[in-house]
């Protein structure tokens, strides 16, 4: 059975400042680096064979730290990027006008094809994240990959595996450097497919970063 670990990157400067990142980027904070080290310490005995990261800087840095601990390399996959949040990227969450807040709600509330201007819909995000996950099925038998991605992107993936709408990700708390795991299961009782083993585990972190909406 293929087991795939899913890790959200460590805390970044803009996470800490409550700024919208999307496909824009900011560096890991000292806390974020420490969280990545703690993921590495936890998974180093898990037999991870591949670390596959979104090609944004924060996921690459987190992946490098984890891959060092696991003794494997990092490959990049742009399909694992965060939701493209268009014109609202880099903005402070508390600075949005009523009209801009309405754009954000189109995504959060699951409006069909809802998107921030110049951004991406949750359906588009879901399709590329599932394609990125499905690529793990082509790895050599016995592989155990670990994917490093983002809060909304991973939340969307886990929610849709469970049969929930993509925007249900808002109800799933995936903190920085939390670990989730999904398995590809082929059984007599269940149509072959992904099964969620665990989601949002932070028991390895001594300093969990609060979600930006909780600060
Ligand atoms: O700001 C964002 O883009 C999201 O809310 C969180 O994205 P991240 O997981 O890349 O920090």
UniProtKB/TrEMBL annotation:
Binding residues annotated for substrate, in chain numbering: 8-15, 21-22, 58, 60, 82-85, 104-105, 151-152
Catalytic activity: (2R)-2-phosphoglycerate = (2R)-3-phosphoglycerate
InterPro entries given in the database record: His_Pase_superF_clade-1 (IPR013078), His_PPase_superfam (IPR029033), PG/BPGM_mutase_AS (IPR001345), PGM_Phosphatase (IPR050275), Phosphoglycerate_mutase_GpmB (IPR023086)
Pfam assignment, any one: His_Phos_1
PROSITE patterns in alphabetical order: PG_MUTASE (PS00175)
Record CDD domains: HP_PGM_like
Swiss-Prot/TrEMBL keywords: Glycolysis, Isomerase
Magnesium as UniProt keyword: no
One Gene Ontology term, aspect cellular component: cytoplasm
Superkingdom of source: Bacteria
UniProt-recorded Gene Ontology molecular function terms: phosphatase activity; phosphoglycerate mutase activity
Pathway membership, UniProt: Carbohydrate degradation; glycolysis; pyruvate from D-glyceraldehyde 3-phosphate: step 3/5
Catalytic residue list: 9 (tele-phosphohistidine intermediate), 82 (proton donor/acceptor)
Keyword Calcium: no
Residues the record marks as site: Transition state stabilizer: 150
GO biological process terms on file: glycolytic process
E.C. number(s) listed in UniProt: 5.4.2.-
Family, similarity comment: Belongs to the phosphoglycerate mutase family. GpmB subfamily.
Xref: PANTHER family: BROAD-SPECIFICITY PHOSPHATASE YOR283W-RELATED, HISTIDINE PHOSPHATASE FAMILY PROTEIN-RELATED
Family matches, as NCBIfam families: PRK03482.1 (NF002901)
Protein name as annotated: Probable phosphoglycerate mutase GpmB
Lineage: Bacteria, Pseudomonadati, Pseudomonadota, Gammaproteobacteria, Enterobacterales
Record gene name: gpmB
